[in-house]
Structures are given as C-alpha cells and as structure tokens.
Design brief:
- The complex is a heterodimer of chains A (about 260) and B (about 280).
- Chain A contains 9 helices and 3 strands, in the order βαααααααββαα.
- With about 260 residues, chain A is mostly helical.
- Chain B is elongated.
- Classes of the chains: A mainly alpha (about 260), B mainly alpha (about 280).
C-alpha cells in the first residue's frame, strides 16, 4: 500500500483504505444531516400544534383588562397553557438533540435542513406573543428566545413573520364579533388592531427589494407576500361586512358556534 | 403619524403601530439583503477569474487527446503559469470568503473549485502517465515515482505497470493554495465532496482519453489505455465503498459505470485483434 502525502497509488489496497476513510467522513456528515432533518420535523409538528391551540382561543373569553385598553392581552386557560407548555418542551428537546451538530460550520452547513422548522417555530412565537402582549417580536428578540446556539437568519425571520400574518388573519376573522353591553354587535378591538397591523406589514414588505442573488429566496418571499395581500383583503372584507351590515342584525342576535361565520 | 425613512422615500405609519412592532424592521431587513447581495456579487466576480484560468489550463491539457503519451509531460508543463495565476485568484477568493461562515456562500464557488481540482488531477495524471510510458517503453527499469520496494518478477512488473497514481486531496490543495478539509471547518477549504467530484471528472476525461490514445499510440504500444482501464476500475471499486445518499454525488458515482464500460470496449477491441496481452 502506498499513500504518501502527495499521491495515492491506485491499487486495490490503497484504494480500499483511502475510500474507507472518505466513507467515514461522509457517514458522519450524513448522520448529522439526518439528525437535523428529524429534529426539524419534530419542531415543525410541535409548532403547528401550538398555533392550532392558540387558534382555539376565544378572544372574548380570554381577554383580561389591563391599564391601557390598547394593550389589553389575553390569559390562556390552564388546558391550553398546559398543552402549549408540553409542546414547547418537545421543541426544546428537539433543539437540544442537534445542538452539537449545529455548532461551528454546522450552523450554515445544515441551515437548509432546519430553516423550515425555524420559520414554523418563529410563527408560533410571534403569534403567541402578539396575542399575549400585542407586540410583534423583533428579530433580536426571537434570536434570544430561540437561543444563541441556533442561528436565526434574517430570511427565516421575515418568512416566519409573513406566515404569522396568515394566522393573525384567521384569528381576526374567528374573533371578529364583539357584543357591547347594550347588545350591539360590532367589530372587535382585536380584529381592528390586527387589520391595522397587517396593513402596516403589507406597506413595509411590498417596498422591499429582493433580488435573486440574495440569500432570501426571492420566489418564496414573493409568494408569501402575495399571501399577505390576500390576508389583508380578507380581514378588510370581513370588517367591512360587519360594519355595514351590523346594524341590520336582529336585536339580541349573538354570534353562535353554529354560525357559518357569515352575516 | 410616524414618518419612517425607507428606500429614500418617507412612509407614514400610524403612531399606534410603533407600540405593536419595531418599525425599523423594514430598513434592517433591506440592509441585510443589500449587504448579502453585494458579498455574493463579489464572490461571483472572483470565481469568474478562477474559471478563466481553469479554461486556459484545460485547453492545453486537452491536447492529450491528440498527442502521444510520451509528450504528456511536455505540454502539461505549459500549464504551470496558468496554475500560478489561478492560485493567486483563489487566494483572493479565500480572503473574501474567510470573512464569513464557510457554508454560507460555499455553493457559489463549489463548482469552480471542483473544476480547478480536476485540472490539477488531470495535469498530474498526464505527467505521471507520460513519465511512466517513457520509462516503461524505453526498456529501463521501473519508473522513479514508485516508492515501495519493487519485486523482480516480470509478472509483478506487468501488474505494477498498470497502476496509476491519483493526486491526494492534500496535494491538490497545496497546488491550488487552499487548505484541505477532511474535518468540518469554518475556514476556506476544499471539501471532500468537491475532491470526489473532481475525481469523477477525471474518470470521465480518462475514458475519453483511452479511446483517443489508441489512435495516437506509437509503435503499437497500448499501455495507456490498459493503465486507464485498471485505474478507472480500481477507483470505481473505491467509490462503491462509500455509503451514498440520493444526492448529486450519488448520481455521478452511478455514471462511472458508463466510463468503465467504454474503456472495457476499447480493451476488448484491442485484445481481440491481438494488439495487447490480456
């Protein structure tokens, strides 16, 4: 067998030894990548469940009064809070499992594999935090929550934020109705606030210049931006409907669970 | 009313939006995108220069397909200057790339480095083959490149005469002026996968050379295609040791069998006509 530092004589023995060592290096890489993919699936699944749990919140029941009526937040009931807590633990565990793989060069080497999961997790975080505190977490705040061992790219943050707008739209429409003490049906505060927020995000993001040479995948961004336009349209339409026809509702009418959502 | 400057225009956001989100996020986002685009543009420009030198080198080395094996070392030596220029260009790329995490922009130069590595492998193979051919057919004893103790039996001479050499990852890196990277690193290096891809490119090139060397052969000495046959088969066996996933490397490894087949047909044609001993 002959392998100097410069050349490998290509006979059976040398080739076997050489490619065996290559194989070990490749195996280590593939194993790490597979672990990241698995963790990514777990994080994505748990994040989606958190979002579903939050969508089940009935805003009028969950609302708590705070000093500033503009900042009124919600308190999650113990069942939903417990479910979300369990799911968060699953996410933390999944992240821990790949902590070592995502260090150093691994952070960018496996970025593509974890990107989707990070976006989904960001969506869950942003959605929950908005409902609780009426605040959209900044990129820095999200990075801190995820933990500094895991890279949260600008691209993942933006795409996650755009996905959150879809969830906010759904929440606004589900929680569109508010009934005053005197029995008047009107648009809820939360729906109005979400509508305004979505409009702001739409203005801001539509002005963004994304070209194909940047890391933020421009096609994905454009697609999600279009979804945002649609979300804004849906919320505005719902708010309009209720505003215009709210006075036409029979006295004492309250939105019930058997409603198909339309007036 | 809050006025935020964005894209050299001023956008008016309602004041209560500031309590719902950090309105600076749009500017920060655009800055991030712009910085990233600039870096990518710079890297692309540097890879273009490296590619140009690589093309010069390959056009010289391609004359192998129309010259006899004994001339290989001569014209291979003419690539030295281009390799030097290429090395300098790669240094520039390395300086820029080292300022960022390795895998963030790796895809932008991977193919370029891969081709540059192939050029080294091909050049070295041609030099070695040329020297081996000259030594073998001049009637002298074994070529000097062989390090291991040599046997004296004629049979072993025949076997060993079939054996070629593949430049190591470390040596390729040295020639290119790059660090080798068998371990996972964040500094600029040639990856194992890039080296393996370059090796497969060499196999592709050699299967074509096997064909053409039959035409160019002097005095009916067909040692070059014979050596290529053995060389490619050994490498194929090596690649089969690897556990591959369904990725780009896997499909290229699968294509090696066509090169093997092509060279086998050449050998078959020659041995059928009694032109070489089997």
């Amino acid at each position: 067998m002959s392998v100097s530092a410069s050349v490998a004589t290509i006979d059976r023995q040398t080739v076997t030894a050489l490619f065996s060592s290559f194989g070990s290096a490749l195996d280590a890489h593939h194993d790490a990548r597979d672990r990241v993919i698995k963790a990514s699936r777990d994080i994505t699944a748990a994040s989606k469940k958190i979002i579903f749990a939050l969508q089940r919140v009935k805003y009028v029941d969950a609302e708590i009064q705070r000093d500033d009526p503009n900042k009124a937040g919600i308190k999650l009931d113990s069942k939903i809070a417990g479910d979300i807590g369990g799911l968060e633990r699953k996410i933390t565990d999944a992240f821990s499992a790949v902590k070592d793989d995502m260090q150093g060069a691994g952070a960018w080497r496996y970025q593509r594999q974890i990107s989707g999961a990070i976006q989904e997790y960001i969506e869950a975080l942003l959605f929950r935090e908005y409902l609780m505190d009426r605040w959209i977490l900044s990129h820095e705040e999200v990075q801190k929550l995820v933990g500094y061992e895991f890279l949260v790219t600008y691209s993942d943050y933006i795409l996650g934020l755009l996905d959150t707008t879809g969830e906010l739209m759904r929440f606004a429409i589900t929680n569109l109705y508010d009934v005053t003490a005197s029995g008047v049906v009107q648009v809820s505060v939360i729906a109005k606030q979400i509508c305004q927020l979505l409009r702001t995000l739409r203005i801001g993001f539509s002005a963004l210049r994304v070209n194909s040479s940047s890391h933020t995948s421009s096609t994905e961004f454009v697609k999600k931006l279009n979804t945002l336009y649609n979300s804004v349209d849906k919320v505005e339409k719902a708010v309009y409907s209720l505003t215009v026809r709210g006075s036409e509702l029979p006295e004492g009418w309250i939105p019930g669970d058997d409603d198909d959502g339309r007036i | 009313m809050l006025l935020i400057s964005f894209h050299h225009t001023v956008h008016a956001f309602s004041a209560d939006m500031a309590s719902a989100m950090d309105l600076e996020i749009f500017n920060k986002c655009q800055d991030s995108i712009d910085r990233d685009s600039e870096i990518r543009e710079n890297i692309r420009n540097l890879t273009k220069v490296i590619d140009q030198h690589m093309r010069s080198i390959l056009s010289i080395l391609s004359t192998a397909h129309s010259t006899p094996s004994s001339s290989f070392p001569t014209f291979a030596a003419r690539t030295t200057k281009s390799f030097q220029f290429q090395k300098e260009a790669i240094q520039k790329l390395a300086s820029l790339a080292s300022q960022h995490p390795f895998y963030k922009y790796n895809a932008l130069w991977s193919r370029t480095l891969q081709n540059a590595a192939f050029a080294v492998l091909f050049r070295d193979w041609l030099v070695n083959e040329g020297n081996a051919y000259i030594a073998y057919h001049s009637g002298s004893s074994k070529p000097e490149e062989r390090d291991e103790p040599t046997e004296t039996s004629k049979e072993n001479d025949d076997v060993r005469s079939k054996v070629g050499q593949l430049t190591s990852l470390e040596r390729v890196c040295e020639t290119l002026g790059v660090k080798p990277g068998l371990e996972d690193e964040n500094t600029f290096h040639l990856t194992l996968e890039e080296y393996l891809q370059a090796t497969i490119s060499l196999i592709n090139e050699l299967s074509r050379l096997a064909l053409n060397s039959v035409i160019m052969t002097e005095n009916s000495n067909y040692s070059t295609p014979t050596r290529i046959n053995y060389f490619i088969k050994q490498l194929q066996a090596g690649f089969l040791i690897l556990n591959l996933k369904n990725d780009a490397l896997r499909s290229r490894v699968d294509s090696i069998k066509y090169d093997v087949k092509k060279v086998e047909e050449v050998i078959y044609d020659l041995s059928l006509r009694g032109l070489i001993r089997k």
